[in-house]
Each structure stands twice: as C-alpha cells, then as structure tokens.
Amino acid sequence: MSPFTGAADFSLSGDGSLAYVPGGARVGERTLLWVDRIGTAQPLPAPQRPYMFPRLSRDGQRLAVSIQGANPGIWVYELARGILSRLTESAGVPRSIWTPDGKHLTFGSPQSGPANLYWMLADGSGAAERLTASENFQVPGSWSPDGQVFAFTEADPATGLDIWVLGLQGDRKPRPFLQTPSNEYGPAFSPDGRWVAYGSDETGRQEIYVWPFPGPGGKMRISTDGGTEPMWTRNGRELFYRNGDKMMATAVETKPVFAATKPKLLFEGHYQTGFGAFEPDYDVNSDGQKFLMIKASQQKSAVTQLNVVLNWSDELCRLGPAGKP
Quick one: pLDDT at residue 217? Predict the structure, then answer.
C-alpha cells in the first residue's frame, strides 16, 4: 500500500480473479547527498533510509529528517559523528523545522485528529507540546529569524490551502496571513524577517511569489515558468526554488525595496520531491554553495510473494449484503 495515497498493489483479471502483494507499505531506500551549484553530487556517509524533508540546524552540525517505512518518524543525524538517532515516532511523515536557536524542532503530527503543529526539545528530552488546535490539516513552514512568529500552511475546505502565522507573544492565537480563493503554501521567511516567499497556483500553475511581512503591501512574482519549494540563502541575497528537476536561483535585494533578477538554472537532476510541494524536500548550507538533496537508491526492494484468489468477484458477491446478482 502506498504510504501517501493509500493505493494498494493488486490487479483483477477479466474472469474475476484477484492478484495482490501482501504486507504493508514498501518504501524504497534513499541516499542523502551534497550537490554543488553545478550539479556535482557527493553522498553523505549516512545509512540509506526512506528519507524525506531534510533540515539543517542553523550551526550546520545536525540534520533533522523524516523517515518512512519500518521506523517512521523524525530522526536527527549528527554530521560530524555520523550518528543517526530517532527523535520521535510517527505513523505519518512528519515535516520538521528547527527553531532559529536550534533548541526545538517544530513538526506536524496527527496525534489526535488532523495533523496539527507541535514542538519539542531537539535533544529528545521532554514531551512534545501542542502549538495549534484545528480541525484542518496543517503543515509547518518557517520561523521568523527572531523565533517569535511561525508561518505554516493550513488546508481549509472553503478556501483551499492558506498561509497562517502563529505568534509566541500574547494569546498565541493563529491568524491568517494569506487566504484567497487560490492555493497558497510553503511559506519561507527571509533572513531579515521582512518578506515571506511562498507558492501559489493563482495563475493556474504553481509559481513562486514574495509578500511583505507583516504587510500590507503587494506581492512580487519570482518564478517565470513554474516553481515550487522556495528556500532563502542565509544572507538573504538569493532565493532558490525548484521547477521539476531544475534547481533555480534568483538574486534578490530585500531593502530598501524588494528587487529580484531573472531566475537562472543552477543544475538539473532527478532528486526526491515532497508530495504537494508544501515544504522543500531539500536544504542549502550556510554559504549557499551546497544543497542537501535526497536521491532514490538504484536497488529497490523486491517482491517476494504474490497471492492469487480465484473467482474473487463471485466470492465478494456471495458475501455481500445483496447477494450474487
């Protein structure tokens, strides 16, 4: 069964027989790699796992990453020591975000209903603390550089995907930041905290935009031919995003007014992409010269058993409430 869609590995023949692969989700192993600005890749010495959503701590010493499959949850990889440790277990695929001081990891979890936002100490001590309580599905996005405001995506049945912000001061009540008839998602604060990059489908295609924070003001479109998964450099002078297999870069100025150059292609490669483009499935190091990417391993897990049920449709009709027609 697919861990994302719920699709199962089965097939029905014309005579009503069923063939299926038993067991739970089979997720392929993946490799963590450093990729430079011209596309040269160097694997990390981390073990192969079903990785998703890598996030480097601000000091560049630790990597928080989601792992699917048999040991799902959020794991932390210490780059210097090469040690991979699980921080929290989760039945889903939690996306995690470091707080700017590196003390906490913020993540989404369906602990009691739709996935809402939690955080916990990054050293694993103490229990997770709930930050939001909503009937809607929520995905973590980005902390403001001062660590006082958290931006996230929420799926609303009426308005679709919207961007909300949660302030740590005062009543800690989330409020909508971008809520339109279009879908807005994947918010990323600029390093100076004055802008939020995000994705939107308002043109009928996924594109990258920048909006002033906390507003008001007008948005600026960054991508020219489609884009997802925006990510800033640490100095705020470049904005990266992906367009399919392409890694794109735009030089920007954030003050006194926002200005951006025409995007350029850095490299192209078939690396892991997150479902829904809610959050980047890559990260960039502190000087903006290397990208932490995820690539599927060449060897995939083999199917070891195939079950066949003859005349399955007849049996289904016999057991059904209406009986066989």
Answer: 84
